[in-house]
Amino acid sequence: MSEPIIELDQVWKSYETGAFTVHALRGIDAQIQEGEYVAVIGPSGSGKSTLMNILGCLDVPTSGSYHLAGQDVSTMTEAALAEVRNRRIGFVFQQFNLLASMPAWRNVELPLVYAGVPRAERRERAIAALTRVGLGQRADHKPGELSGGQQQRVAVARALVTEPAMILADEPTGNLDSESTTDVLELFDELSELGRTIVLITHEHDVADRAGRQLLVRDGQIATAVGAA
Amino acid sequence: MNWPETFRTGAEAVQAHRMRSILTMLGIIIGVSSVILTVGLGQGAQDEVKSQIDSLGSNLLVVSPGSTTSSSGVRGGFGSSTTLTLSDADAIADSSVIPDVKQVAPVTSSSVSLVNGTTNWTTTLVGSTVNWLDIRSRELSSGRFFTAGEVASSAPVVVLGSDTAGELFTGTAVGQTVTVNGSALTVIGVLESSGSSSSETSQDDTAVTPLGSASSVTGTSGTSISSIYVEGAAESTLGAAYQEINSLLLNLHGVTATEADFTITSQEALIETANSTNRTLTVLLGGVAGISLLVGGIGVMNIMLVSVTERIREIGLRKALGATPRSIRRQFLVEASMLGLAGGIVGVIIAVIGAQVLPGLIDQPVSLSLLATAAALVTSLALGIGFGVYPASRAARLTPIQALRSE
Ligand SMILES: Nc1ncnc2c1ncn2[C@@H]1O[C@H](COP(=O)(O)OP(=O)(O)O)[C@@H](O)[C@H]1O
Ligand SMILES: [Mg+2]
After folding, report:
1. Whose CA is nearest to atom 11 of ligand 1?
2. Residue A1 falls inside a structural domain
């Protein structure tokens, strides 16, 4: 077996909230291989989002280590982490997180702006990514002019546009109706078939069932691992 | 993110909140335009004083009776005593004694009533020599000036200022006669208007006669004079001429420098005195305007801080997508400097319009200075950058998750 793209070793995350300390993660050990499709499932408040933020280098563990593609994240500078997020990771959030003032294609090209891709190429690649999620005709629409499902597909296009090795999605279907949910999940299936590593966070079992493997999180710990490794 | 991208992002953010951007810039706009206008007003006032004093003649020194003990204190009835004489003027005119003097015009002046039939006009009767016209840089609009022969013979002729001629005569003045204290003087010429706008000491309300004629019609002694106009040979030697005249007169009057019974004034000194008042006022008003510019800068900081708080999710998202702290800092810095600079540019435009409109409203000339304009623009940009630094670094310091989580 090759070296895992994600390797968590006794990861703790604690929040100081006034009088007492909340331990959101209590010693997570996990490995995810390149190209795996993993669902992280668990009840609300179990620490799923906290876990994803650490996986996405948006936050750092209180203790324990996180190796991303073999590199210890805690040794990296802010600028280096920004580059990792830019090149290696594509995020999809529950609240879409699109910039309302910009048309769809400008939202999609944003990661390319920070990657230093020339302008003409950016537009081309943004339109291509939008076409891939079935929104090629909506490139010039602003988020407010799109349905929730369409907005989330724009967000998926944004996550795809840099061709990252890994896609992290935190409850991507949480705000969507069932039809849009199917659309978005089908997109993830396709990406998985193309070899992308996908970590999908959800609290819904029928969503988690699409993944190759499930990590069950309860009270900040991995409870059970279901499916093939 | 490279600079062109940063500028595009900044410009978009400024445009996206158009009303707020304009209100933010307002402080800078007011500050910049009032700095430029106050400096322009001060400069305009100085220019006006200079042109008035220049109109007296070029390279001019004026010797007056009486003395000043310091630049402020006046001793011995400045301008009223009769310590200057014609022989002083003759001595200054002697080029073997004072080589740096080009020409000299002794002057007497007294207030008289000129009469033409039933018309009666009070003016200043100036007695002088033929050099007066040239030394005072005056021209004639009609007729001629009196000759050396007429000065020597104290001929009863007079040259009138343009206003005086207008007051006394409806048609041509040249060839007519005016009566002063019962003596008739023939008008031989009328002076061209000096163009100076100062109404207090109008250069155009005057009557000039040969020295002897003036003293005979006013019945004063022929030797004491009210001032001596001296034209230096060149601007560069004016200081030397000043020294030469000073020591000559001290010698002639047999007094030491501390007892000097005369005063020599240069145009330079007159301009300096007038300008020092103007300058104080300009600095004062300019300072107030500068403070308002500073307040404008604080306004930019205030809005940028609000903007950072308001766009905290956007900052978090940009960071998640790969923005480094530096590119976030630059984005907000560029935005703040754009607000500053745009405010500055609008301020300059308003100042330029104001400089056209204002003189008509307050009867003061405004001369816009390129330097003040450039300085105000640079300052507004610097204010934008200076007051943008703090909000920008606050935005840059936010961790992506802090920023994304906030609702
Ligand atoms: N910034 C924070 N400050 C304090 N407590 C937090 C913070 N983030 C998460 N938590 C707490 O950590 C626990 C896990 O939260 P989260 O990871 O968002 O759960 P999930 O995504 O599974 O619903 C919760 O009890 C939550 O209240
Ligand atoms: Mg969550």
Report:
1. A24
2. no
CA of B404 to the centre of ligand 1 (A): 13
Task: Please report which ligand is nearest the Cα atom of B405.
Answer: 1
Residue A24, ligand 1, Cβ within 6 A:
yes
* Alpha-carbon distances of B169 from B117, B160, B179, B327, rounded to whole Å: 10, 11, 13, 81
B240 close to B152: Cβ distance less than 8 angstroms: no
In-domain check, residue A217: yes
- Between helix A78-88 and helix B312-320 the angle, nearest 10°, is 70
Positive or negative torsion for Cα B368, B369, B370, B373: negative
ipTM over 0.85: yes
Q: What is the CATH number of the domain that holds A61?
A: 3.40.50.300
Tell whether pTM > 0.90: no
* Distance in angstroms (rounded) separating the CA atoms of residues A188 and A192: 6
* CA of residue A76 to ligand 2 center, whole Å: 26
The C-alpha atoms of residue A69 and residue A208 are separated, in whole angstroms, by 24
Q: Which residues of B touch A114 (CB under 8 A)?
A: 1, 318, 321-324, 327
Domain interval for residue A142: 6-227
Tens of pLDDT along chain A (229 residues) come to 567 999 999 999 999 888 889 999 999 999 999 999 999 999 999 999 999 999 999 999 999 999 999 999 999 999 999 999 999 999 999 889 999 989 999 999 999 999 999 999 999 999 999 999 999 999 999 999 999 999 999 999 999 999 999 999 999 998 888 888 998 899 999 999 999 999 999 999 989 999 999 999 999 999 866 554 4
Q: How many structural domains compose chain A?
A: 1
By the CB < 8 Å criterion, does A62 face chain B? Answer: no
| Residue ranges covered by each domain of chain B | 3-52+273-405, 105-231
Residue having the nearest C-alpha atom to atom 5 of ligand 1 = A15
